[in-house]
TrEMBL record:
InterPro entries: ARM-like (IPR011989), ARM-type_fold (IPR016024), PP2A_B56 (IPR002554). The lineage of its organism: Eukaryota, Metazoa, Chordata, Craniata, Vertebrata. GO terms for biological process: signal transduction. This is Serine/threonine protein phosphatase 2A regulatory subunit. GO terms for cellular component: cytosol; nucleus; protein phosphatase type 2A complex.
Amino acid sequence: MPNKNKKEKVSQEPPKAGKSGKSSKDVQDNLDMEVASKKSSSTVVPATQIAKIKTPPVQPVVKKEKRQSSSRFNLANNRELQKLLALKDVPPGEQEKLFIQKLRQCCVLFDFVSDPLSDLKWKEVKRAALSEMVEYITHNRNVITEPIYPEVVHMFAVNMFRTLPPSSNPTGAEFDPEEDEPTLEAAWPHLQLLELFDSEDPRERDFLKTTLHRIYGKFLGLRAYIRKQINNIFYRFIYETEHHNGIAELLEILGSIINGFALPLKEEHKIFLLKVLLPLHKVKSLSVYHPQLAYCVVQFLEKDSTLTEPVVMALLKYWPKTHSPKEVMFLNELEEILDVIEPSEFVKVMEPLFRQLAKCVSSPHFQVAERALYYWNNEYIMSLISDNAAKILPIMFPSLYRNSKTHWNKTIHGLIYNALKLFMEMNQKLFDDCTQQFKAEKVKEKLKMKEREEAWVKIENLAKSNPQKRNSPSGSEQ
């Protein structure tokens, strides 16, 4: 349509041009050249538009396809399996031999990624055999005889101990369990018995968590070794890679292990808390495993209250400066610690602790300020504050009073009013003293500011009256 309108306008122009003294032939020639140039320019534009239209399909979105991956297996050449008789359908004397045959069948590996539709019949035979053997062992006693043990171990080794695939996002943003879909193992129908913790498939990690916990409970001689290997995983995670998929599951196991520690705690266990668990707070992916980590820390403090001071001071050391969601997590954990803290231990940490809380109350991020002010809704924490109000109120009052007037969020105003009201009810005289002291400090600040401004005015006047100013090369006489 635009080209058609232009042509219509052009066709109306020759009479006007004729009046200016040019011949109709010259005008027509000029118009023909103009139309031709417009046609040529109009043919170039669609070409660029076509190129732009073709560009997006070249970059397909493949992120969802990455959500399914498979480990590195060495596939067998002959993958045809014969469906054997069911164990319940053969005489008891032949069940052991048939069980071994099924175990050997299950040592055959299949491809679940590059060609997932291949060998469907044989894949189903293997899956059914695995399920049948698990059910057989569950419902019958003394079925795993001495000849079966090496076959079982070999089948486990072939299927389970494998090279995991590269992480789908090794250096990118951390995994968000609420937003991101977990990466699932394509060969899962054949892998439900024992897995590796660094697998991205949560089903694998869940089974391994149960298995390792049972091994820890049954084999007393392996307990120290298991704890040492878990420590090594944590050290590598904290100081080298900052990437491991099974930290939450390992901490969950440790939570139950810590719960069973005998008293008094061994020095080895205290070192584990201070050198392993507490540094886990500084990793950027803390949100993935923070509930399990906080539970472990609280378990230690319930076992030994003397660890409270080093734990709280370590949290204050690792306190996030620019990551508000992480700061909210620290506040959550700190409240859990205060719920189990002994009054004698609270006295040791209350001053640095409430200096940090005062900063949180002053935070422009309303969730941080809100979470800190919720401490005043906790009855046990309020009893601790009431017993030590003479130390705590002077620390908290300036932040509370200032933000009651200047904070942008109205919800924060209400929470601050509630905190100030509780302080007033605790000790009216102390509250009045803090109010007067705060106002006196404000007056001093105004006087200092006025003196500073007057000093700058004097400096400017001296500079203007300085005779060298006129004689300086850069100066200009008025």
